[in-house]
Design brief:
Blueprint: H1 2-5, H2 21-32, H3 42-45, H4 61-89, H5 91-115, H6 118-138, H7 141-147, H8 152-181, E1 187-189, E2 196-199, E3 202-207, E4 210-217, H9 219-222, E5 232-235, H10 243-262, H11 282-287, H12 297-300, H13 304-325, H14 327-335, H15 345-373, H16 375-402, H17 406-438, H18 443-450, H19 452-482, H20 486-493, H21 500-505, H22 511-515, H23 531-549, H24 562-567
Antiparallel strand pairs: 1-5, 2-3, 3-4, 4-5
Length: 572
């Protein structure tokens, strides 16, 4: 088996059609790229016990978003360590291991959901799955750069386009399986027909002669149900969100597809080059900041250019990945309360799909464009335009809250889709940028090490957006309670305002439930929960813009000599 997977076994013979390699690369990236549809899981994962609404024992949004964060962290770490290994064993071996880790991670994660052991979900999807993501991500990239030296940007764009498009297929697939396996919990009746009591912030009702935990669904909560049902009281611990079964099903599907694709990989012979192609002359390459020299993988870490590119990737990803992790929730919170007839669960799920579409298109479009305008100019567009667009989102949220109109939804949709084309474009263009700066010989390994920036961003992005959102939510709840009659509050929740912290902690009091008893004319603050995170994201892109503006060619002292190149056994 080791021989079948080895690099020597997959060297292409004369006349091999290089266009047979991209489909295999795209297939692997489509599978692992479904990680970008993680937000589809969020509504179900935070309702495992309550099913129709979050129960006190359910995980909260921050806990489940950090599973996604963990996967991204281990993606970068695995890619960094796999860089040299990839150079040695080739893409087929790495692809097969990636399939086992990504598919197996889903199975372990599903077990964690069934047993409600959060650490198993982190271990399975986060650690094992994240390592599968990293290995699957790097396995085809350097291979395609070698197959397409005449179109570096386009080549990496083709492979990484699949990663961006993974959610396009993954989101509706996940939605379908969750709904397919979904079972509604036991319905006890409307609120006025059930005798409710509150103990330690929890809602209880008498069922079968004893008090049992329940959740109360109001008219505003119905829109957030996985499958809409009647308002009223539901018994906690009955029914199923269907998310565990979805994990098991997708784990098997992704494993099979990735194994087949990995066995389709081929690498070109050492002296191969496209028919009729000659490398550009040095003067032309220098104008485009494309070096004809090579920098060793370890020597690259001694250059300021590596850390400039690391910072640029990290900040660009931080700005985008935080939004991706909560995309479905964010869409519903900004527009679900102001335009409820348009922005329902299906609309929000489709928004996740469209993120994937534009992410995917951006990866191919911007990487291909960079072949003509250069990598540095391409990144200038990313950071300058991105800053303006991030700053516009809080204004849009403010306007739609004060004057609900579809035009603000259209603007938000357009602005965020442009952002996601550039987010994806940053990923697909960075390998070509690395090849321009450090040469092609070790670009696979250098790219792997640079992806530790993705790991860092995977922590920073969700941390910033969930922490600031949570802070904004607590502040909004406090201000809403100040406007509500204490007697009405106590009658609604079965406890006084003095127990607010316990009620919020138990998820008994939410913004949606407070709005149902707030005085007429009270503005729903939900749409403004993401204002501060957007300002922070814009400021990060300004720093990245400066780092890109300072980019210069690598100093000649870091270049490998012709003898070192000839004697080296590592190549990309």
């Amino acid at each position: 088996m080791a021989g079948l997977l080895s690099k020597e076994h997959i060297v292409a013979g004369p006349g091999f059609n290089r266009w047979l390699v991209p489909p295999a690369a795209i297939a692997v990236h489509l599978c692992i790229g479904s990680v970008y549809a993680w937000s589809i899981y969020n509504p179900a994962l935070i309702k495992q016990f309550g099913v129709v609404a979050s129960a006190p024992e359910d995980w909260n949004l921050r806990e489940v978003v950090w599973v996604f964060t963990t996967a991204i962290v281990f993606l970068g770490l695995a890619a960094a360590f796999a860089g040299k290994w990839l150079e040695k064993v080739g893409p087929r071996m790495v692809g097969v291991v990636a399939a086992a880790l990504w598919g197996g991670g889903y199975l372990v994660g599903g077990l964690g959901i069934v047993t409600h052991q959060l650490w198993l979900l982190y271990l399975g999807y986060g650690v094992l799955g994240g390592c599968g993501l990293g290995l699957g991500y790097v396995s085809p990239v350097s291979t395609l750069i070698r197959w397409f030296p005449d179109r570096r940007g386009m080549a990496t764009g083709m492979a990484i386009m699949g990663f961006g498009g993974g959610a396009m297929i993954g989101a509706p697939l996940k939605e379908y399986f969750i709904r397919f396996y979904y079972e509604p919990p036991e319905f006890l009746g409307p609120v006025d027909q059930v005798n409710l009591v509150t103990e330690a912030g929890k809602r209880l009702a008498e069922v079968g002669g004893k008090l049992q935990e329940v959740v109360v669904v109001t008219a505003k909560d119905v829109a957030n149900m996985i499958v809409p049902g009647p308002e009223g009281v539901y018994l906690v611990g009955t029914g199923s969100t269907g998310v565990a079964q979805t994990f098991f099903t997708l784990g098997v599907i992704y494993f099979v597809i990735m194994i087949v694709a990995s066995f389709s990989y081929r690498v070109p012979a050492e002296d191969w080059k496209p028919e009729g192609w000659t490398p550009p002359d040095e003067s032309h390459a220098a104008r485009r900041m494309i070096t004809p020299h090579h920098v060793h993988i370890d020597e690259a870490l001694k250059t300021p250019q590596f850390y400039q590119l690391w910072l640029m990737l990290c900040l660009n990803v931080t700005a985008g990945i935080g939004v991706i992790g909560v995309a479905k929730t964010m869409m519903k919170e900004i527009f679900g309360t102001t335009l409820p007839t348009i922005v329902d669960s299906e609309f929000a799920a489709f928004y996740v799909v469209m993120i994937s579409v534009f992410n995917m298109v951006g990866r191919f479009f911007w990487a291909s464009i960079s072949d003509y305008i250069g990598r540095k100019r391409t990144y200038f567009i990313f950071f300058a335009l991105g800053t303006v667009l991030y700053l516009s989102i809080p204004y849009t949220a403010q306007q739609v809250s004060a004057h609900p109109a579809v035009v603000w939804l259209v603007y938000f949709y357009a602005a965020t889709m442009i952002i996601f084309t550039m987010y994806g474009g940053g990923f697909s263009t960075i390998p070509a940028y690395l090849a321009d700066i450090f040469g092609t010989k070790y670009v696979g390994g250098i790219h792997g090490r640079l992806l530790t920036a993705w790991s860092t961003a995977g922590v920073l992005g969700p941390l910033i957006i969930t922490s600031l959102r949570e802070s904004s939510m607590k502040e909004a709840i406090t201000k809403l309670v100040e406007r509500i009659d204490p007697a009405v509050f106590e009658r609604t929740f079965g406890a006084g305002i003095d127990q607010l912290d316990a009620l919020v902690e138990a998820k008994t009091v939410t913004i949606a439930k407070l709005m149902s008893i707030a005085p007429p004319g009270t503005v729903d603050p939900t749409s403004s929960l993401y204002n501060t995170p957007m300002y922070v994201m814009a400021s990060l892109l300004v720093v990245a813009l400066i780092a890109n503006a300072l980019m210069r060619p690598v100093h000649p002292k870091h270049h490998m000599t012709p003898e070192e190149v000839a004697n080296s056994d590592g190549h990309s």
